[in-house]
Structure formats: C-alpha cells, structure tokens
Amino acid sequence: MSVTDWTRATAAQMADALAAGEVTSVELVQAHLDRIAAVDGLDTPSAVHAFLHIDAEGALETARAVDADRAAGVELPRLAGVPIGIKDVLVTQGLPTTAGSRILEGWIPPYDATVTRRVREARMPILGKTNMDEFAMGSSTEHSGYGPTHNPWDLERIPGGSGGGSAAALAAFEAPLTIGSDTGGSIRQPASVTATVGVKPTYGGVSRYGAIALASSLDQLGPCGRTVLDTALLHEVMGGHDVMDATSLDEPVPPVVDAALEGARMDLTGVRVGVVRELSGAEGGFQDGVKQRFEESLERLRGMGAEVVEVSCPSFEYALAAYYVILPSEASSNLAKFDSVRFGIRVEGATIERTMAATRAAGFGDEVKRRIILGTYALSAGYYDAYYGSAQKVRTLVQRDFDAAFAQCDVLVSPTTPTTPFKLGERIDDPLAMYLNDIATIPANLAGIPGMSLPAGLAPEDGLPVGFQILAPAREDARLYRIGAALEASLAAEWGGPLSAQAPELEVGK
Amino acid sequence: MSTLDRSDVARLAALARIDMTDADLDRLSGQLDVILDAVAKVAEVAGEDVPATSHPIPMANVHREDVVRPSLAQEAALSGAPDAQDGRFRVPQILGEEA
Fold this sequence. Notes:
- The structure holds two protein chains of two kinds.
- By secondary structure, chain A is an alpha/beta fold.
- Chain A has 16 helices and eleven strands.
- Chain A has one domain: Amidase signature (AS) domain (Amidase signature (AS) enzymes).
- In chain A, strands 1-3-2-4-6-5-10-11-9-7-8 form an eleven-stranded mixed sheet, with helices on both faces.
- In chain A, a hairpin with a 6-residue loop joins β10 (451-458) and β11 (465-471).
- Chain B has a domain at 1-45: Histone, subunit A.
- Chain B contains three helices and two strands; from the N terminus they run αααββ.
- Chain B has helices spanning 6-15, 22-39, 74-78, and strands at 84-85, 88-89.
- The radius of gyration of chain B is 22 Å and the shape is flat.
- Chain B: Belongs to the GatC family.
- Chain B: Keywords: ATP-binding, Ligase, Nucleotide-binding, Protein biosynthesis.
- Chain B: InterPro entries: Asp/Glu-ADT_sf_sub_c (IPR036113), GatC (IPR003837).
- Chain B: Heterotrimer of A, B and C subunits.
C-alpha cells in the first residue's frame, strides 16, 4: 500500500505493510513520535496531552530489533513492529508509572504487568504511558494529578475518562492502538466522546496482574483502537489465562478477530438485538443528537437482517447508586497501600502515622480523597449492611435483569453516554453530575459482562462524536466484534471511510 | 440513613490516614453528604431474600502447584522505597508521643 502519512493507517494495515516490506517499524515509530512531538506537548499549539511519559529510545530500540529479525526471516507475531500506548495504570518495568497520581511521582516499577509483558512478547514498540484520572477515578481526565487531556475533536472539551489519554492518542493519530482499563466505563466512555473504539472484555478475560487496582470486583483491562478489527487484534494479544491473577479465567481467548472479519461482511440475519429501555434515553436525560444517531444505527442493524426488540432492566435504576458504594469501598481498601513506605513520595512527619497522613494529604487529589472517605464510611461498623451489603444485593438484581434480557436476545445496545463531550471545567465541582456520564456503562461492570463502544456519527446540533454501546453475555466477547464490525462497515460505506478521518486537523508545532 | 457532618468527615479522614485542613473539611463534608444521599437508595430494593453478589463471575478456590517460582530480588523490591537501609524499608518512629 502506498501511504504518505503512516499515522493515518489502521494497525491492521501497518501490520500487513510491515509483513510485505513496504515500511519498517522504525519508520512507523518515528512517524508517531513526530506526531506526538507536534501535537501532544504543553508547548505545542494543540497541547492534546494524551501522554504522561514518552519512551522514544525504548520504542525505537524495539522497532530496530523487529526490523532486523524481519530482514533475517524470523517468524514474528502479527502486530510485531506496530507501536502502542499504554495507560499509566499498568506497571512497566523501567518506565515511570503513576496511575495519574502525584503520590507515585517518579516511581519506576521493578516489574512488568502481565499485559505489559504480552505487549513486549508481541514485539510492539511502546511509545509511552497515557494520561488518566488519578487512580482511574473520573470521566474527564480532569482528576489527573498532571493536568487534563484535551479532546482532539474540540480541544476545549473533555476526552472522557478515566482513559482519556488512551482515547485522545488514537483520535489525534499519536498511536494506532492503546490499552485501557474499565471499572465503570473508563474504556467505553472515552471511546464514545473521541469517535474511537474501546472494549471492556468479560471480567477475568484479561489478566490484571500489575494493573494498579481501583475496585477489584469491577476492574478489567481492555483494548482501544480506531477500528473494530484493530481492537480485536489487540484483544487477542492481551487476553488469556494468567496464573499470576487468581480471577483470570482459565479459558481460551474468544475468537474476536474472526468475529470482526465475519461482521464486516454485513450480514446479521438471525441476530436478535435488544434495546435496553432504561439506557436508551426513553426516560429523558439524553441529548437529542445522541438519540438520533442511536436510532439510525438501529435502523442499519435492521437493514443487515437483525431483529431489534425492546427489553426492560428495571434494576438498572439502582446501578449507579450501587456502583458508587462498591467502588469507593473497594478503592478505600486498595489505596491503603500508598503508605509512604514501599513506593512513591514521602512527606516526613514525627511518627510513621503522621508521615502517612501527611503523605496521603499531599499525594492524593480531591476526588481520590472524597472516594476514600466515602468508602471508609460505607465499610465502617454499623453502616456496612446498609451500604456495601445492599449494593451487593443490587448487583444480584442487575445480573438477573441481564440474564432475563439475554434470554430474549443475543446482544443489548444503548448509546454509550447520554451526551457528547462537555467542556473542560463544566462539571469539575459537581461530583454527581460527573458520575452521570457512566449511567449506561456501569451495569456491565456490576455484572462482569463484556461491552464495546464504537462511533455512531456526529450529533447534528454540535458536530461532536456519539458512541454506540454493545453488551454481550459473559464469555461472549466475540458477539461485540461481529455486531460492531457490521455497524462500522455500514457506517463507513456512507461516510467513505472511518469517522476518525473527519476529526478536525490539529494545529501542529514545529 | 444518616448524614455526614464535618466532625464525621474529620474522624473518617483520621481513620483513612489523610490529613485535612479546615477548608478541606468544609468542602468535602458538603459534597459527601450529597453523594451519600444519592447512593442511599441502594437499601430500597435490597430485600432479605436477595443474595449478595461479591464477585461477578463465580469461581471456586484457585490453587497452584506448591513450587518455588522466581520473585523480585530484594534490591528491586526496595528500589522504589522513599528510604531503605540494610535491606529493609526504613520508616520514622512507629510509636507516638503518647506511647
């Protein structure tokens, strides 16, 4: 293939061109490093700030080794030589890892997360670490301890969160693939507001060893890309059983690449698609353009042979409340490890207790403090049953609703987020308004089922991206890719290419 | 359910080992009360007959063979510590003035 700007290619195209000898990995990595230098830094006109750390030399070194092996005829993995960005929630040996928190500023992990190791074994050059809300608590990256990421579609708007850096890096053509983590929507909501693709796999489908934990009964790592096929290729690199994570499923990775290829043939005959009444905006609170693009996407699915039915999940009304009990509770426990002793910063006090309290006051941001206090309260004697115990019961009810819905259809769908991206600063002082971003994504985390967001178009009223969410039963991740690839192909045929190509040109620095 | 006032937040912050200024307490106690009010509705549908779900995918105990595997070297484990000495994490005094 003849390409003038490799940053615009898909990961699959890059892999094919590498295999065909049409480009080298060093050229691909350098093109992306140049793009990052032009648009990402705070000293550039666009200042996307998707990355917290760039590892140019490490990425080029991997690229040179891949190119040498390829020239020598060594058999290589499919994505060998294709660059990637990794969310700063994953530990990377020798590369700074902060999870977006000042409390870990300057920390260099002494080991690799399992997913980091798998990326290295896939011979993918790691461009750097992507920005995120502190410890993944947020929906806008405004809670990052290192300043927010800006949405490439409109630099004054949020890129979503917590994985806003991973999503913005894709939308700004700074990387073809990135890794995210999704506790309540942190992969899917950023994908929605940046017109990219993101998947939260089935709970346990991807090892979490070396992922800095937020809420352990909800967290799941997943792939992010600009196309459904690219996302599937990365899913197969990341997924699979790991003895280092006791919650990892001892099962084969679902055949997501085959499913994406099958879906691209645009035949959905016999597929039953359920529209979740409680998540479809029927009861208000959803932007008109979001509802319009969602309805049009449903029409496309029907046009490809799918049957669309309405289902009701009445317990979802309580999902957001249950989530904001379970998450702070588990986070307050997980974040107790930041004690000024083993890693991160230390603010000296007279005793170790004073030192811990001073360190945590200085190192944690407001949102993290809010959630730790809330979780400490919800888990305290006398309140445990009313809050955490009740929330766990709501979880059962949400799972029952999903079971009943999936008895009637193969996948469930909804808009990913109720609105297009809002302006930076607009909701920063109103935690509850911020939490509402995740109303449609949270139920999947409570139930452990897989979910995908992919672009559904731009809202007519503001020209900003709208995301389409697909949910499948546990272990049926492949269904997301089949339906998603079909919708993507149908939309691309109308647009003459992926929606990401319509993003406004960013002003570049020298 | 109950509400959270300023003194509650101060007590919880002490339990969670986070120093808070007066301004922190003022700001957080108002926000936390609003959030708590919103999440209290979980109790509305949590009937006696509904079992709790702690883990989304049911799993039995997970075991592995009892064999030695490589782990972090002592030097690597200490590499990120703010302070270390003689192969150990070094911390300020652990007993307070009242001890």
